[in-house]
Amino acid sequence: MASSSVFTSYIVLSLVMALAISGFNFKGAEAARAFFVFGDSLVDNGNNNYLATTARADAPPYGIDYPTRRPTGRFSNGLNIPDFISQELGSESTLPYLSPELNGERLLVGANFASAGIGILNDTGVQFVNIIRITRQLEYFQEYQQRVSALVGDEKTKELVNGALVLITCGGNDFVNNYYLVPNSARSRQFALPDYVTYVISEYKKVLRRLYDLGARRVVVTGTGPLGCVPAELALRGRNGECSEELQRASALYNPQLVEMIKQLNKEVGSDVFVAANTQLMHDDFVTNPQAYGFITSKVACCGQGPFNGLGLCTVVSNLCPNRHEFAFWDPFHPSEKANRLIVQQIMSGTSKYMHPMNLSTILALDSKKY
Predict the structure, then answer these.
(1) What SUPFAM superfamilies does the annotation carry (predicted)?
(2) Alpha-helical regions (H) of the chain
(3) 41: which strand partners?
């Protein structure tokens, strides 16, 4: 036993010395567990900046409240959900996978693979042309692991991935930018809404299972928000400022089925790998009682034009509120920085009403004993 321990220590010491000689700060890179992000514009940290697509947020006034006061590709006035989770992990924000800065020891922090406009289905967001569909995001995750293996070896890479936290956020676009994108869309002709929801959930299960097969062991899966209540849908489909009934019906069908699918998937893998975050209820809190959270409105976007500032894109010529912290929505579709912070607070410490089977604080406490 003693000789085995000495041999193991020798191997580890040799690896650390080799990395130190190459200028690699291994200890600093492992200060916090790695964090990986997959999904759509709610969690994209800037991958679409590197793509020829209209689904991008790289121009003012996006980023007006970010520390640099410049647009970053986040669909927010400032920080987004992954940024606040990174803070809770005690880590710097993950870089977009396509960023040329993501190399060396920064790879060990994790990576953000998300791309605005994507959905669970590959035909979602076709109007945006060049976006990183979820299947491609998973391929990039495989490629990422190969890059890290070249840096620290296969075993250390496996440990890093198995011990990481993963966030995946997609599904909303499969309704907004697919089923309901135009009247009589191809998918709405193919499926009645309940059948479409069942189909999307079945496809999502394949995505999550693939994540598991690629080594993910702690995955926070967010549901959709109240799709019919975002300013864009109030402007396009709502009546007299009321939420769109049809899109609300889609959310009401989708989110409970997502939770049930996650329960089933956890049974199949034999562990609570997947954690459901009920972001619809988290948003509903703001929508039904914005004043309780310090907002003056949850109907009007801070940045936009037309009714409820819900039409078109947020641009330099849009209406722009001076008091961003008083608006639940930054633009026609996306929460403000303050709303993102409140959502992460619920992900961290919310009750079983919001998080199933446990919240992120519980996960981190449990995992601290394992890793």
Answers:
(1) SGNH hydrolase
(2) 2-21, 26-29, 81-89, 134-152, 154-162, 173-174, 186-190, 193-213, 231-236, 245-269, 279-288, 337-349, 360-367
(3) none
Give the separation between CA 28 and CA 105, rounded to whole angstroms: 8
Q: Domains in the chain, start-ordered, CATH in brackets?
A: 31-286+336-368 (3.40.50)
pTM: 0.90
Give the pLDDT confidence of 228-247 residue by residue, as tens digits: 999 999 999 988 889 999 99
Query: Which residue of the set 40, 41, 44, 244 is catalytic?
Result: 41
Which two three-digit tokens encode residue 369? 């004993």
Catalytic residue among 174, 331, 336, 356: 331
Q: Which two tokens stand for residue 257?
A: 């089925």
Q: In terms of Cα–Cα distance, which of 120, 133, 123, 110 is closest to 51? A: 133
Torsion of CA 142, 145, 150, 155, to 10 degrees: -120
Asked if 321 and 302 count as a contact pair (C-beta separation under 8 A), the reply is yes
Judged on CB neighbours under 10 Å (0-12, 13-18, 19+), 46 is buried
Q: How many percent of the chain have pLDDT more than 90?
A: 85
Per residue in 130-189, pLDDT (tens digit) is 999 999 999 999 999 999 999 999 999 999 999 999 999 999 999 999 999 999 999 999
Of the residues 44, 83, 93, 334, only one is catalytic, namely 334
Tokens 């509120």, located at residue: 321
Going from the C-alpha of 45 to that of each of 79, 82, 176, the distances in angstroms are 9, 8, 21
* Pairing assessment for the beta strands 355-356 and 274-277 based on DSSP bridges: antiparallel
Of 366, 341, 304, give the one whose Cα is nearest residue 88.
341
Is 331 considered catalytic here?
A: yes
